[in-house]
Amino acid sequence: MPETSTPRRLAVIGTGKIGLAAGRLWLAAGHTVVFGSRDPASKAGQIAQYGERAGVATPREAAEAADIVMLAVPGESVDELVDEIEDALAGKIVIDATNQLAYVDGRWASALPAGLTEGRRMADRLTKSSVARAFSHIPDELLFPRGTEQALYWAMAIAADDADTRRTVSELVRDAGWTPVELGGLDDSAPLDPGGSVFHLFYSENEMRDVLAA
């Protein structure tokens, strides 16, 4: 597993498979992670097993305690969450790992209007935050094992409008055991959204770049 050279205080809002996997990967790399849950008491025992740098709090408390926040809740819940904690996210990097999913003709697809990416939608909601897309196109059950057992072999696509945000999130992706592939801005991020060319598929870095170029 990679070890970070820049320990950070991170918040992961959501304790489902994606949130727990990302948080555990970051803890293993040397970061401090506070998980946000609507019922922190019920998660305290589980989170305590992850070590002294792991904590659990309400979503607002978690967001307020961190400089970088991942949103890792179901797509149908994220708007309500954002309404509640938008002010606590102001001035911070927000990694949007949520998806608005639709199932069309036997395939996963984006439920958003044509031409609107998930990242742009979230950035339009969080105008005082710097939004990035990452961790949203990897199957949840494989995020942790492939980030540990095959660290830095598999690629993860990321996007953000701000270059410094892309650089920071790229570092966090690498700390999680994945190789970052930057797509550019949020309007360029459709390939990692549901139905996109890399959604729920695995590639090495060069393979992913070939797919994106095609």
Helix content: 25-40%
Number of helices: 8
Q: Write out the strand line-up for the largest beta sheet, numbering strands in chain order.
A: 3-2-1-4-5-8-9-10
Classify the secondary structure makeup into a structural class.
alpha/beta
Average pLDDT metric: 95
Beta-strand portion reads 15-25%
Count every beta strand, where a strand is a DSSP E run of 2 or more residues: 10
Rg over C-alpha atoms, rounded to the nearest angstrom: 16 Å
Could you state the order of secondary-structure elements as H and E? Answer: EHEHEHEHEEEHEHEHEH
Low-confidence stretches: none
From the N-terminal CA to the C-terminal CA, the straight-line distance is 32 Å
- Quick one: overall form? globular
Largest sheet: 8 strands, mixed
Which oligomerization state do the chains in this entry correspond to? single chain
Structure description:
The structure is a single chain. With 214 residues, this protein is an alpha/beta fold. It is 39% helix and 21% strand. The strands form two sheets. The protein has an eight-stranded mixed beta sheet with strand order 3-2-1-4-5-8-9-10, with helices on both faces. Helix 1 packs parallel to helix 6 and helix 3 packs across helix 4. It is globular, with a radius of gyration of 16 Å.
